[in-house]
Design goal:
With about 140 residues, this protein is an alpha/beta fold. It has a single domain, classed as Rossmann fold (3-Layer(aba) Sandwich). Helices cover about 55% and strands about 15% of the residues. The protein is built from eight helices and five strands. A five-stranded parallel β-sheet has the order 3-2-1-4-5, with helices on both faces. Helix 2 crosses helix 7 and helix 5 crosses helix 6. It is globular and about 40 Å long. The two termini are about 15 Å apart.
Length: about 140
Amino acid sequence: MIKRIFVDSDIILDVALARKPFCISGKIVLAILENNIAIGYTSANIIANIYYILRKTGGNENARIFIKKIIQYITVLPVDHSCVLDSLNSKFLDFEDAMQYCTALRNNCSAIITRNTDDYKTSKIAIYTPDEFLKLYQPFLGK
């Protein structure tokens, strides 16, 4: 079973902004992490991006409240100088995705959950959409 899960920003934003139809599966992914069925990780730059977007849509206080809640069960990983260099030199077309991948790889994550699976074609880590990931956890979810 996959235990160390890196969560991309689109999944967290789907939940925070109630983006349909994606928010439902995103909520279940986050519930798996919140209930310690798997261990969740994300990067510091994802948190900064989430704050920026949520502040624009719902204000500073609401953005901070949401982030404080999710970091209770999702560990924020640093993005360091060598990760940035490795990302710049990678085969990833999207620099931000390269940084997420590098952060996940360096922290021994088993999978990345994202809706942008095409951006991770060169990944050595398993890449799942929320729905694909949830199929793996159906026995734990009672479905």
